[in-house]
Amino acid sequence: MSGFGALGLAPWLAAQAEQVGLRKPTPVQEACIPPALQGRDCMGCAKTGSGKTAAFVLPILQKLSEDPYGIFCLVLTPTRELAYQIAEQFRVLGKPLGLKDCIIVGGMDMVSQALELSRKPHVVIATPGRLADHLRSSNTFSLQKIKFLVLDEADRLLEQGCTDFTQDLEVILAAVPAGRQTMLFSATLTDTLNELKRIAMNQPFFWESTSEVRTVEQLDQRYLLVPEKVKDAYLIHLVQTFQDEHEDWSIIIFTNTCKNCQILNMMLQKFNFPSVALHSMMKQKQRFAALAKFKSSIFKILIATDVAARGLDIPTVQVVINHNTPGLPKIYIHRVGRTARAGRHGIAITLVTQYDIHLVHAIEEQIKMKLQEFSAEEQAVLSILTQVNVVRRECEIKLEGTDFDEKKEINKRKQMILEGKDPDLEEQRKAELAKIRKKNAQFRTQVRQTLEDRRQLLLRRKLQKRARRRHHQQEKPKVAGEKGQDLTSSQAGRR
């Protein structure tokens, strides 16, 4: 017995894995599948593109085939796109079982999602926010009998930052049974995961990739040092170079904001590049459509924010370009992990400005290797610089005309409503808070001014006293001299 059969998987499941192209288990699959089948909690930390999804999908399907019921498994993931990708894996590998799955993510109709949940699917794949909304608002389904809870990209789900899932996770964890089997997977191990490792129950099994380097060997990692104001021209030049040399290559360009993502997409389209954007300001249907067009190579270039940085498996991606240097090394690891997946080769280029050198050092320290410099023809970049700057300005003006910032404000209001908050009331609170802060600032300024005035007054009085004392001391000898003269003259008169 070899391959997946040797790990304890049933022959039908091993055959199904082989049919979809999984012939030989990867290290993370070899390490995590046997303890998962034994019923142990499992935590796996491995490089991007190393087959972590199959490492939890396969044992879950085997256990489901032994005792099928719904809802059997809950998978939590930080992004909507990743949820759909995991569901696809479950469908393909669980086809012989007639597996029923349900995807619960934001941006879709809640009523139809609630109906799907009430039909008790075998597997629920969800983002924490939307699932927590369902748990708060309806009682048509129960998670009390689930056998498996999976946290994919666990570090992102458990970290506290701009998108904090803590409250939603508390609601979900209160709804699932204590006797469940828990599985956590991630490409980056954080302090939170280390803490979990110490407090985990149910004979926890922990596996971390032994490799010193945190990114795959097949990935060629480069940096390009560019002045801040010439960054866009270098990006256009790089895209043009790759398109000329390798017409069939797919490229992902990562940037830091939704607005920048939209502008870069408009710019590339102006230069007749087949590009599409993916960011959180787009409607969910638009996001799926953009991703589908990129996956099917209708568009060869995807410009994305970090919503596309985690877990997405697009085999045709040969190049990743970081338009901005990621602020955290783990974001860099996830971004560049979109290429060189499953043993394929790829290249990642990061545009580094004079302000980003310290970020590159932090990345190099984390991935345990030095980035190599990428050479670009400076003259070719300078020749298109003016044109690129003009096009960027045109795109910025065009975007301002589409009320892009206004849409962002509307999205914020929608999010508040979903969280059960009144946007107008929140606005009033913010305004009142701003007034209080303003009054406090004015009061502090007034107090400082009063103290300063008092200090100045005391200083003036002190100086006046000192001046009077000095004047008095100077006057004393004069008076004594005058008295002496008077005494001399009176004595002379007597004689």
TrEMBL record:
This is RNA helicase. Residues 461-473 have a biased composition (Basic residues). InterPro entries: DEAD/DEAH_box_helicase_dom (IPR011545), DEAD_box_RNA_helicase (IPR050079), Helicase_ATP-bd (IPR014001), Helicase_C-like (IPR001650), P-loop_NTPase (IPR027417), RNA-helicase_DEAD-box_CS (IPR000629), RNA_helicase_DEAD_Q_motif (IPR014014). Residues 461-495 are annotated as: Disordered. Pfam families: DEAD, Helicase_C. A motif (Q motif) lies at residues 2-30. Its EC number is 3.6.4.13. Gene3D superfamilies: P-loop containing nucleotide triphosphate hydrolases. PROSITE patterns: DEAD_ATP_HELICASE, HELICASE_ATP_BIND_1, HELICASE_CTER, Q_MOTIF. Residues 218-382 form the Helicase C-terminal domain. It comes from the Eukaryota. GO terms for cellular component: cytosol; nucleolus; nucleoplasm. Belongs to the DEAD box helicase family. SMART domains: DEXDc (SM00487), HELICc (SM00490). It comes from Pogona vitticeps (central bearded dragon). Residues 1-17 form the signal peptide. Residues 474-485 have a biased composition (Basic and acidic residues). GO terms for molecular function: ATP binding; hydrolase activity; RNA binding; RNA helicase activity. The keyword Isomerase does not apply. SUPFAM superfamilies: P-loop containing nucleoside triphosphate hydrolases (SSF52540).
